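Weekly structure sync, notes
Attendees: PL (lead), two postdocs, one rotation student
Agenda item 3: pending single-chain targets
PL asked that the sequence for the first pending target be pasted directly into the notes so everyone works from the same version. It is reproduced below exactly as submitted, 260 residues in total.
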Amino acid sequence: MNDIALELFASEYARHRAQEGRGYSGEQLFQLPHLKTGPHIAQWAVRARTFEAFMTCVLRPTAMKEGRALAVLDLGAGNGWLSYRVALEGHHAFALDIRNDGVDGLGASAPFRRQAPGMDCIVAPFEAVPLPPGTIDIALFNASLHYATNLRQVLCEAIRVTRRGGQIAILDSPFYARESDGLAMVSEKRRQFGARAEVLMALPFIEFLTRRRLKDAAPELAWKRHRVTYPLVYELRPLLAALKFKRRPSRFDLWIAAVP
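Predicted structure, written out during the meeting:
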């Protein structure tokens, strides 16, 4: 990936996120993902459900089975809110992101790290994770895998750093049943960004996932979907789209695979 293009994207994306009001501080920062106020509470209500499913179905059962603290790699960690909550449960969390800005990149994680000594931050792309092989129990992509430019390379890195029998989890990346619906979403996104799309969409991110894309990228992984029950307004999206003759919307859910 071109370093200059990556730096340009990171700085422009931070500016874009700030304009959207996604820079949290104080009480709001520590509320994440259970945000109670602000323009994005509906989105966080969805993300909170996925997070709770991850904690209930992956993190806590694995910790109970292993009988020890776990090493968890949070790929695309943003400001580190998920790593913080993992560390609060007594585990060692590595928050990794290419962005170190103070909007909602790792530069905004200092309040979390002051209260959670088991949380470390790593500024790096998830195509090249600076950790030894087999050192992670759970590698999770936190609303981030759709920002991969090479899905095979990214998943291979996650496999490399995760121990045998460990788990890889995907949270809050858009999944489509049909490739055509995902491509239509990308076109809509480009139109919404307008002139900013030249920078925000300059890098060849995959943008969305399908079962086929996952299988083709890492055939050695057997993915299982844990269907998450989201707020009613989210669950009604397919019906509303059908009534309006629009493309089928994505789902998030929780996807899990064991490392062979």
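Discussion points:
- The chain has one domain: 3-258.
- Residues 208 and 218 are 16 Å apart (CA to CA).
Action: rotation student to compare against the earlier draft before next sync.
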